[in-house]
């Protein structure tokens, strides 16, 4: 690929679901290796890459709350799940020789560095992939909100939201075959139509900071790199 990338710095959001492959739970190393290869290809284009990983393949706080347990403790478990995923992705990236650092919003210094904006920017400028673990570090938030927050803090030019399908649809295309697919939308349209692509707080934060959200299929090999040069199939959310 010879075209010049459109962005200097981006934030990729990979949900926990993306890492579990067809297993239905946990981590499929082959799938994580493939996503790591896609990230490596974008790094090779000299784009600075931050990644926020979810934890839904392992644990979600609402699962505790729905069974009468304490939501905050459940969310702590969910945040720890994101750290497990971050370490798995870092391992796959390092196997490919990609310099990678995990920064966690929840301090666990024996395992990874703690998040600070300063440390993250320093790693990015040195060409390292930075994986943001632990979400926002607060219960009642999601890793989508963490993605918008870290993108704003990093001055990322776009949030790449890797999903199960190739963009935003009016309804889940796996359940509603004739759902409409959008090529472009504004942040307001996403919010007003109630489109289930990222939670409201995440979209509102991206809107306030004028950060475009590019929604694409994380399962399409090489798609991340194609989108960096304006190719590939995605829905673009911008004002
Ligand atoms: N979580 C949290 N605060 C955050 C981010 C995540 O409490 O800032 C918890 C929450 O319980 C959530 C879980 O971590 O359900 C996993 O995150 P998320 O559901 O966003 O993961 P994804 O759906 O992207 O896999």
From TrEMBL:
It is found in: Cytoplasm. Residues 8-217 form the Aspartate/glutamate/uridylate kinase domain. Its EC number is 2.7.4.22. The keyword Transferase applies. GO terms for molecular function: UMP kinase activity. Its main location: cytoplasm. UMP binds at residues 55, 75, 136-143. Transmembrane segments: none annotated. Keywords: Allosteric enzyme, ATP-binding, Cytoplasm, Kinase, Nucleotide-binding, Pyrimidine biosynthesis, Transferase. This is Uridylate kinase. It comes from Hoeflea ulvae.
């Amino acid at each position: 690929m010879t075209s010049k990338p459109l962005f200097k710095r981006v934030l990729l959001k990979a949900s926990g679901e993306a890492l579990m492959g067809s297993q239905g739970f946990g981590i499929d190393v082959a799938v994580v290796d493939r996503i790591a290869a896609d990230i490596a290809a974008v790094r090779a284009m000299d784009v600075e890459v931050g990644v926020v990983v979810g934890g839904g393949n392992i644990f979600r706080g609402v699962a505790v709350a729905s069974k009468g347990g304490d939501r905050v403790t459940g969310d702590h478990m969910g945040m720890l799940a994101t750290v497990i995923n971050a370490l798995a992705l870092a391992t796959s990236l390092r196997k490919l020789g990609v310099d990678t650092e995990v920064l966690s919003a929840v301090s666990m210094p024996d395992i990874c560095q703690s998040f600070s904006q300063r440390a993250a920017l320093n790693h990015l400028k040195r060409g390292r992939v930075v994986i943001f673990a632990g979400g926002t570090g607060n219960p009642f938030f999601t890793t989508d909100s963490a993605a918008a927050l870290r993108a704003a803090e990093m001055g990322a030019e776009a949030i790449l939201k890797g999903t199960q399908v190739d963009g935003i649809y009016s309804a889940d295309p796996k359940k509603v075959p004739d759902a409409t697919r959008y090529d472009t939308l504004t942040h307001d349209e996403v919010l007003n139509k109630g489109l289930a692509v990222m939670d409201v707080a995440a979209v509102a934060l991206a809107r306030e900071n004028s950060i475009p959200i590019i929604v694409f299929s994380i399962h399409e090999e090489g798609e991340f790199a194609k989108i960096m040069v304006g190719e590939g199939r995605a829905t673009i959310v911008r004002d």
